[in-house]
Amino acid sequence: MPQTIYGRTEGLKKQVLTQLEAIYELRADEGQLISHELALVLRDLSEEINREISLYIDRKGKVTAVAVGSDCHVDLPQVESRRSQNRLCGVACIHTHPHGAPRLSGVDFSALRDLRFDAMAALAWETPGSEPVLGFAIITDLDDNQQPVLQEFGPYTAKDVASMPFGNIVHLIEKLLAKRSRNHNLEEGPERAMLVSLAWGDLNARWSAEDSVEELAQLAETAGALVVGKFVQSRPKPDPVFFIGKGKVQEMALFAQQEDIDLCIFDDELSPAQQRNLERALGVRIIDRTGLILDIFAKRARTSEGKLQVELAQLQYMLPRIMGQGTSLSRLGGGIGTRGPGETKLEVDRRRIRDRIAFLEEQIRKMKGSRKQQQRARNKSEVKQVCLVGYTNAGKSTLLNQLTHSDIYAQDQLFATLDPTTRQLELPDGDVCTLTDTVGFIQRLPHQLVAAFRSTLEVVKDADLLVHVIDCSHELYREQAEAVYQVLQELEVTDKPILTVYNKVDKLHQFQGLQHRLEQEEHTVCVSAKTGDGIPRLLQTMAGMLGQDMTEVTLCIPYAETRLAARLHSDARVLSEEYGDQGILVKARMKKTMADKLAAYRK
User: Fold this and answer.
1) At what angle do helices 304-318 and 289-300 cross, to 10 degrees?
2) Which of these, 94, 148, 198, 396, has the minimum number of CB atoms within 10 Å of its CB?
3) Closest CA to 416 of 435, 434, 390
4) Is 560 left (phi over 0), alpha (psi -120 to 50) or beta?
5) Which residues, listed in sequence order, are joined to residue 53 by a DSSP beta bridge?
6) What span, in angstroms and rounded, lies between the C-alpha atoms of 526 and 534?
7) Residue 390 contacts residue 396 (beta carbons within 8 Å)
C-alpha cells in the first residue's frame, strides 16, 4: 500500500517516489536514533534528487513520516504527539543537508523547542558514496522559566550514532524534565510515593499487612500523593536500624532512583533513629503512618480549635524527632508530611517547642470550658443528644445529611470530616434531639491525635445514644468495628447505649444472606445512607432507645405556679392541657428524672 510523501514532490520520477515510499518499510532498532542502513538510503536518495529529505522516527524505530523539500529547505509535516511540560513528543526528526554541513539552523532549533522532538538531527556527507555524518540537538533541561534548554552534539559518523544508547538518553531526559517540572510547582503535580509495610507478629490475623498497605494507599491518595509502588516485607520482628532490614532497603533505593520517587511512607510508626537512617539510605523523604494521618488532619482542619488540636498533635510527634534534622531545614520544601506548623523555628531548641505545646494546651483548655458551658445549656434543656461514631469513610456524614436534610461535606474519601458537626433531628414520636457527626477512627489511630482531640471527642461522653456506623460492604468490616470499639474504650464511653447501623447495604445485592444475618443482631439496623433504604426503621429504633427513660404523666399545676406550666411546654412534650377548678391538668411526656421532681403534682 503506497505511503504518503509530504512536501515538494512535483518533478520527481515515479521510480524515485517508489524509493521514497520504501523508506517506510525500513526500521531502526528500538532505542536507536537512526540505523546505519537508513542513513545510507537517505544519503543516496537525497544525492540523486538534490533535495533535502526529512523523516520522523518513533521510539520503536518505525518511520512515521517522509517529506521532500528543496535543495536547502524542507517543510516539516504536522506531528501528533504526547508532548507536555515534562515529556518529549516521542519522535525524532532527521533531515539531510546535500552538499552542506551537519549543522542545525535557527529554524531547526525553533522546531525542536516548540515541538519538543526527542532529537533534531542533520545528516550530511562530503562526496557521493562517503560515510554520512550527523549533528543533532536535544532538550537537556528546563530553565527557571520552565523553558527548554537546548544542546547540540556532533558531528558523528552514522555508524557511531547507530551504536549510541539513544533510548536511554531520552529516558533520562524525561525523568529530569519531570523532576524539574514538579520542583518548579509542587502543588500542581502529585508527589510520587512508594509504600512499605512489614508483616510480623501474628501472620494469621485477618487484617494482614497487604490489607494494611492498601489502606495506607488510600491515605496517601487522600493526602495528594501518587502511589507508584508498594512493598511488603516479612520478618520475625522489626529491624532496630532500618525497620525492614538492610537488604530490602538496598532494593528500595534502586527502585526510588529508577522511578524518581519523592516520598517513602511506612505503614508503622518509626523511631526517630530509624527515620534518619532510612532517609540517608534511600535518599528520599521518609514519613510513617502517624505522620501521614497528621498531615491529612492538618490539610482538613477548618475551625480554629481543629487547627490548634492538629498543631498540638504534630508538635508532640515532632518533639522527639527534632534532633538530627539539621540546621539546613531539609524538610522545609513542602509536600506531604510537612503541612501544618512545619519546622518554623523548631530548629532553635526543644524548649520553644515545649513552650508552644503548653500554649496550645492552654488555648484548648479554654475552648473546652466554653464547650462545657454550651453542654450545660443542652443538659438543662434536657434535649437528647445522639453521636455518630465509626470508622473513617463508613458514611457517617452521608447518613447525617440523609437524616437531617443537610448538605455538609461528604465524600468517598478518608477523613472527609474532621470538625464535629451538629444538626437538629425530629424523631417519629415528635421528640427532638441533636445529631452530631464526629471524626472517623482508623486502625492504629495515632495516640497524639486521640489526646489532642480528646476535648472535641468529649461530645461522645455527653451523648445519650451512640450510633455506630459500619461499612458492611467492606471485606474487613468487623476488624474496622473492633478498631472503633478500642477508641471508645480509650474514651471510657462503652457503657452508653450503642445502636449499630450497618451502612451501604445497597452494595450487598449479591450477599442478601449477610444482610439477613446482620439484621438479626440486637440493637442493629441495616440502611443505605445513599439511597435512603432503611432510614424510617432507623428513626423508629433511635426514638425507641432514646425513649426508654421517658414516661407519660398527668399533672395538676396550681394556677399560682403558671411558670411551671410554661416550663413543661419548653422541657417536655405536652400531649393535652385542660383548665379545671383546682388548676391546669397537663398530660405530658418527659424524662423519668423530671417526672420524679414533679411527683407532688401528679394526678
Assistant:
1) 160
2) 148
3) 390
4) alpha
5) 68
6) 6
7) yes
Whether 457 and 491 have beta carbons less than 8 Å apart is answered as yes
Least confident of 24-28, 154-158, 268-272, 338-342: 338-342
User: 7-11 long-range contacts, Cβ below 8 Å, gap at least 24?
Assistant: 7/54, 7/67, 7/68, 7/69, 7/74, 7/75, 7/77, 8/51, 8/68, 8/69, 8/70, 9/68
- Cα–Cα distance between 544 and 538 in angstroms, integer? 10
Nearest to 252 by CA among 197, 207, 214: 197
Q: What does the pLDDT look like over 275-290, one tens digit per residue?
A: 888 988 888 889 988 8
Instruction: Tell whether the torsion through CA atoms of 129, 130, 135 and 136 is positive or negative.
Output: positive
CA atoms within 13 A on the CB side of 504: 16
In a 13 Å sphere around the CA of 298, the CA atoms on its Cβ side amount to: 21
How far apart CA 20 and CA 13 sit, in angstroms, is 11
CA distance 67 to 95: 9
| Number of residues that this document lists for the chain | 603
What distance in Å separates the CA atoms of residue 444 and residue 365, rounded to the nearest whole number?
A: 26
| Amino acid in position 452 | A
What are the Cα distances from residue 212, in Å, to 234, 248, 442, 487, 548? 14, 19, 11, 18, 40
* Local structure of 37: helix, strand or coil: helix
Contact (CB, 8 A) for 523 and 498? yes
The model's pLDDT over 75-96, given as tens digits with 9 standing for 90+, comes to 666 655 444 556 788 899 999 9
- 4 compared with 144, residue with greater pLDDT: 4
Among all chains, which residue has been given the C-alpha cell 528500595?
252
Distance of alpha carbon 139 from alpha carbon 168, whole angstroms: 14
Taking Cα atoms as reference points, which of 160, 235, 165, 225 lies closest to residue 195? Answer: 225
Yes or no: say if 551 and 595 are a contact pair by the CB < 8 Å rule.
yes
Quick check: 222 and 415 in contact, CB under 8 A? yes
Axis-axis angle for helices 272-282, 246-258 (nearest 10): 50
Q: Kindly report whether the peptide bond that precedes residue 190 is cis, defined as omega within 30 degrees of 0.
A: no
The model's confidence at residue 571, banded by pLDDT at 50, 70 and 90, is confident
Count the neighbouring beta carbons within 10 Å of the beta carbon of residue 252.
23
pTM above 0.70, yes or no: no
Residue whose C-alpha is closest to residue 283's, from 264, 309, 267: 264
Kindly give, in sequence order, each residue whose CB lies less than 8 Å from that of residue 38, ignoring residues fewer than 6 positions away. Answer: 23, 26, 28, 63
